[in-house]
Amino acid sequence: MNRLTSVFFPILLCCAAAHAGLIGQTVTATYFHPDLSTPIGASSVLVGPGVELNCTGGGTGLCGAFDGPPETLDFTDNQIIFTQGPFSAGNYDNAPFNGMVFSNLNMGSPITGISLDTNGFTGLTLSNLSFTSNSVTVNLSTIPFATTAGFSITLQTAPVPEPAGWVVVLPVLAFFLIARRTRHFEM
Question: Is residue 35 domain-shared with residue 107, that is, in the same domain?
């Protein structure tokens, strides 16, 4: 039995389900206004620990799209977290599109759903969001906000397919089981 365990344990470790998530991935955040054909700032960031973008009014890339006090953008393994303020309450203008598109969200398997938590954004609901297999769009047009506001979007994916290593493991397992059974009968 020890010989069998020593053979299969390393094989099973190699074939464990692959990690799905954004950590270690480069994702892109683009601000569009007044429509989805007019980008006004974009940044590609490597997702890791801590906040990926800390905008303090002006700057380059995505930060150039913001003109107020601090906005932050943080990505976790399966979330997009945006915060703004503190500053005067207000609302986003009523352009056809006024918001962000998060793309290159390559999590190991396609995005199949999203959930939304808001704090200080009155009226921001899932109806303001859309998603594809590797992107999320947030339209903030006409959305009022408090002096400090934020939202977090949780990305849901299908289970990550197991690696093709199982194609190797199953015949080896069958061989050892047959060999063990044959040896058991010979005794």
Answer: yes
